[in-house]
From TrEMBL:
Segment forming the signal sequence: none
Organism annotation: Forsythia ovata
Domain of life: Eukaryota
GO MF entries: rosmarinate synthase activity
InterPro entries named among the record's database cross-references: CAT-like_dom_sf, Plant_Fungal_Acyltransferase
The protein, known as: Rosmarinate synthase
């Protein structure tokens, strides 16, 4: 990575200690913990980082405070101290063994500020600040929480987290991290976790009331897999509120749609631009997938502090020709219709669809947009104040684009983090000049 203000590549080393297990501080319930069908689809790891300045306090006691409070917060969120298993119904579930989270202490040979923005897409940093379980062959062998505290010369430190998405969506992860911080400061937990996921059980008998094309396998007739043999370039593009508003107005200018949100305009714009950059065959079907928070859309709404995945994937599908040749309003309407589709009946139909088919969303011919820009990870406080930098690290798949908040900016700016083959990235950059 480059050192800020320099064209030189900045190298730093991190010495990692031996991993230990941090179990819950008190006895917790045992047995099998139910994961609902919305949890089954996303058994991937989420990697996030939180960088804290020492602000006059050293980091000598940071490790003990963070480790001790992790042990205490796991009493409330005890399933995270267990291990994934396969239930008799052949689904993911948690064996509440109270084995605990994996915890690693590391020391860097530089100052925190030397790293610049550690959430920029730079895979060289990922392995240094987030601990990977060596030799883990599959998701069942990876503990549900892995935490690494890296201490820097300046007294600052970075908490690097690896959590399984089947346990937590972004909102649950944010609430867990904030609860952990409150525990570290000896405060009561503001939003206690609601642990009962059986409220999202499939109906008996299942009722599939809608087509669920989010699971469709799309044939790649554009040979994009050849393109992806090139070097993959990762870049972050900043859309400030003015740019987002310009996009929104552009979507409305031809009168084809009467209103749209900034998210809808940006998603449509990125989907269209990426399809152009990849030079898709005009007859190529292309699918946009993104998650909608279903917490308030269920009837009744999910309880506050719902601990799990309250998100549902929705989709748009069209040909590359229609997407690229039509004005932006065409794509925005597709995105807007996909958001409107997510009702209580639709979500319960999706839950039942998985119950019957065990299908998982296919990413062939697909762009998956994952949105972290509205999650307030910047409020986490272990006693050293809010993080100077926070957010997800890296992209899990080549089909994924990440919308993240822009540093500590609170005014609605969004960073669009993308990985594309080198030739496509050049075109994508040009298309994003608005």
């Amino acid at each position: 990575m480059e050192k800020p203000g320099s064209s030189q590549v900045f190298e730093f080393t991190v010495k990692k200690g031996q991993p230990i297990l941090v179990p819950p501080a008190e006895e917790t319930p045992t047995g099998i913990y139910f994961l609902c069908n919305l949890d089954q689809n996303i058994a991937v790891t989420m990697r996030t980082v939180y960088g804290f300045k020492s602000e006059g306090k050293g980091n000598e006691n940071a490790v003990e405070i963070i480790k001790d409070s992790l042990s205490r917060v796991l009493v409330y969120c005890y399933p995270l101290a267990g291990r994934l298993t396969i239930s008799p119904e052949k689904k993911l579930a948690v064996d509440c063994t109270a084995e605990g989270a994996v915890f690693v202490v590391a020391v860097a040979d530089c100052e925190l500020q030397d790293l610049g923005d550690i959430t920029k897409p730079d895979n060289g940093i990922l392995g240094k600040l987030v601990y990977e379980i060596p030799g883990a062959g599959n998701i069942l062998e990876v503990p549900l929480i892995v935490a690494q505290v890296t201490k820097f010369k300046c007294g600052g430190f970075v908490l690097g987290m690896c959590m399984n998405h089947c346990m937590l969506d972004g909102i649950s992860a944010m609430e867990f991290m904030n609860s952990w911080g409150e525990t570290a400061r000896n405060l009561p937990i503001k939003i206690p976790p609601f642990l009962d996921r059986t409220i999202l059980k499939a109906r008996n008998p299942p009722q599939i009331e809608f087509p669920h094309h989010e699971f469709n396998e799309i044939q790649d007739i554009s040979n994009t897999y050849q393109l992806y043999k090139q070097e993959i370039i990762y870049k972050s593009f900043h859309f400030d509120p003015e740019k987002l508003e310009t996009l929104r107005k552009k979507a409305l200018e031809d009168g084809n749609i009467q209103k749209c949100t900034r998210f809808e305009a940006l998603s449509a714009f990125v989907w269209k631009s990426r399809s152009q950059a990849l030079n898709l065959n005009p007859d190529q079907q292309t699918k946009l997938l993104f998650a909608v928070d279903g917490r308030s859309r269920f009837d009744p709404p999910l309880p506050e502090g719902f601990f799990g995945n309250g998100i549902v994937l929705t989709y748009s599908i069209c040909s590359a020709r229609d997407l690229v040749e039509n004005p932006l309003s065409f794509a925005v309407k597709l995105v807007s219709d996909a958001v409107k589709m997510v009702t209580d009946r639709y979500m319960r139909s999706a839950i039942d669809y998985f119950e019957v088919t065990r299908a998982r969303p296919s990413l062939s011919g697909t762009l998956l947009i994952t949105t972290w820009s509205k999650l307030s990870f910047h409020t986490i406080d272990f006693g050293w104040g809010e993080p100077v930098v926070s957010g997800p690290l890296g992209l899990p798949d080549k089909e994924v684009i990440l919308f993240a908040s822009h540093g500590k900016e609170r005014n609605g700016g969004i960073n669009v983090i993308v990985g594309l083959p080198a030739s496509a990235m050049k075109t994508f950059e040009e298309l994003l000049q608005i």
